[in-house]
Amino acid sequence: MPKSEPEHEEETATDAERRRRRAQFLRELNEAKALRDRVQPRRARAARMRQQMRMRTFRW
Question: If you compute the radius of gyration of the chain from its CA atoms, what whole number of angstroms results?
Answer without folding.
Answer: 20
